[in-house]
Design brief:
The chain has 80 residues and is an all-alpha fold. The protein folds into two domains: 1-37; 42-80. It contains two helices and no strands.
């Protein structure tokens, strides 16, 4: 019982401290000030974002092509 208390008491106090910290941060940011909830809004994708996604897709497709058409399997073959 003594060991359980030694573990639970600091855990409870640290949890209460974290709850206080988060609630103060929400109050300072004005969360819940109005009836409608305030959340972050999604930003539209820009040209650089599309370029990065297309580049990543091309690298992925290229690696699949090399894997299946050059090596002939998913395993690494150092002699090809």
């Amino acid at each position: 019982m003594k060991n359980v208390i030694n573990i639970c008491v600091p855990l409870i106090f640290s949890t209460l401290d974290r709850i206080d910290l988060i609630s103060n941060a929400m109050d300072l940011r004005g969360f819940g000030k109005h009836k409608k909830r305030t959340w972050y809004v999604a930003k539209p994708l820009k040209k650089g974002d599309w370029f990065a996604m297309v580049f990543a897709a091309l690298v992925f497709i290229g690696s699949l092509c090399i894997t299946f058409f050059v090596n002939g399997s998913r395993f690494y073959n150092p002699f090809v």
